[in-house]
Amino acid sequence: MHRVALVGRHLLNPSLVLHRQISMEPRAAVDRVRQSGLLKTQGLIGGKWTDAYDGKTIEVQNPATGDIITSVSDMGKKETTDAISSAYNTFNSWSKLTASERSKCLRKWYDLMISHQEELALLMTLEQGKPLKEALGEVAYGAGFIEFFAEEAKRIYGDIIPATLADRRLFVLKQPVGVVGAITPWNFPLAMITRKVGPALACGCTVIVKPSEYTPLTALAAAELSLQAGIPPGALNVVVGNASDIGDTLLQSTKVRKITFTGSTAVGKKLLAGSANTVKRVSLELGGNAPCIVFDDADLDVAVKGTLAAKFRNSGQTCVCANRILVQEGIYEKFANAFAKAVQNLEVGNGLLEGIAQGPLINAAALEKVETFIKDATSKGANVILGGKRHSLGMTFYEPTVLGNVNDEMLVSREEVFGPVAPLLRFKTEEDAIRMANDTNAGLAAYVFTTSIPRSWRVTEALEYGLVGVNEGLISTEVAPFGGYKQSGLGREGSKYGIDEYLELKYVCLGNMKEA
Ligand code: ADP
């Protein structure tokens, strides 16, 4: 197997300060995390770090080098059942704390994440592959959900409804839904957890997190910090291991009142169906097929910069990544040239190295999927403007790719490619663009580049998408609602709306209020 070259004698010192020198050798990065006490390899059940009951472990691999970083507990049904019991028992005390008490714990957790941002980012780059700068960005973004919901905890207001009879008073209380099962993917190993756990804990729910088997280390490190922050044992549990065993145990339990999931549409549908038997609340954030529409009247620089960011963040492995770049015919050639030039400058390599913009894909299956999509597109008439093959670094590195003359019959425009491939499709009119953009079962993010304000409104209103970026490619933030239309999901995460997913409404009628 090809190993990625890492050069520089000075890179071997684990006590290196990242802010001074971003490049680091993987072994030194692991040592640094270990020394900070954040390299956790067991599950967390009831506040105790716990091995799988049968002692089994799974290896966690660095996708940039193929090295095994460490092994973690390979848990299943029994451990999940115990984690559920622990969350269930802790619900009683955690939900009865005052909002201010819960808020203080969350705020402390946020502070600890920020003071350990470098160790968290190193872990993320090691197990997921994203460039360290992006990983640091994710720590800030991910921790931001905890900070936001620490504040929001104190703003869960009920209502008083004008009564229909003189001797009655009508109220609405908001109460935590109960024990929450949170299943998360590998592409944002921290933020996908904090955007679920933040609102859940803020309103008094307790949680069992099942992180992706590819990226459990960031989740476990964050959980360690939650204990240090004073979040009580049992309020946040983490089980790592067999996905369907853990998932089925969460689904079957009547103690688990809500499932929140980010991941593939196929697994999301399974979880939705599996929740029917116990009628759980379900929030889903599933796949996208984001259109990025560049109109003739767009500012070319803004469009290139925004599309680059929307397409190539995390090497194209996000559900809001631009999947189809629809370019109006008048600007097509100019845009294609400028965009390809910008893509050419993206440096590919191990994310621990300075200046790297594109890390590896998560695994061999992801690489093969990209290859299949490219083959399908070129066999149907697409032309490779840039890239189009595995990167000479080997492993799962793929060349940042731009495809021209793509049409809506190709896999690359029907499904998420989840890789560094930007397909350009040509359109004539605004109506064509809207029709093409909406011609999918997905509806998560869409991007529009135009300098016309009326057009930006018209198109935004017509797009069947939960998030729209106008003249901007990076739009996610903890203060705004995130979620999809159609088969991209159910519910919203982040923002003041995100906490509703974890709350029950209780209507109370106070009757027979006689005069004294
Ligand atoms: P991706 O293709 O992005 O990895 P998945 O939907 O396969 O998306 O994975 C997202 C999360 O769902 C991961 O934590 C994974 O382990 C988990 N998962 C996969 N299959 C199941 C299942 N049958 N039940 C519960 N969780 C599952």
TrEMBL record:
UniProt main location, coarse: mitochondrion
Ranges where the Aldehyde dehydrogenase domain occurs: 49-508
EC number(s) recorded for this UniProt protein: 1.2.1.24
Oxidoreductase in keyword set: yes
Subcellular location: Mitochondrion
Catalyzed reactions per annotation: succinate semialdehyde + NAD(+) + H2O = succinate + NADH + 2 H(+)
Active-site residues (renumbered): E285
Pathway the protein contributes to: Amino-acid degradation; 4-aminobutanoate degradation
Record-linked InterPro entries: Ald_DH/histidinol_DH (IPR016161), Ald_DH_C (IPR016163), Ald_DH_CS_CYS (IPR016160), Ald_DH_CS_GLU (IPR029510), Ald_DH_N (IPR016162), Aldehyde_DH_dom (IPR015590), Aldehyde_DH_Superfamily (IPR050740), Succ_semiAld_DH (IPR010102)
Key words, A-Z: Mitochondrion, NAD, Oxidoreductase
GO CC aspect terms: mitochondrion
GO biological process: gamma-aminobutyric acid catabolic process
GO molecular function: succinate-semialdehyde dehydrogenase (NAD+) activity
Class of enzymatic activity (EC top level): oxidoreductase
Similarity field: Belongs to the aldehyde dehydrogenase family.
Self-association state and partner proteins as the record states: Homotetramer.
Annotated PANTHER family: SUCCINATE-SEMIALDEHYDE DEHYDROGENASE, MITOCHONDRIAL (PTHR43353:SF5)
Protein name per its UniProtKB record: Succinate-semialdehyde dehydrogenase
Phylogenetic placement of the source organism: Eukaryota, Viridiplantae, Streptophyta, Embryophyta, Tracheophyta
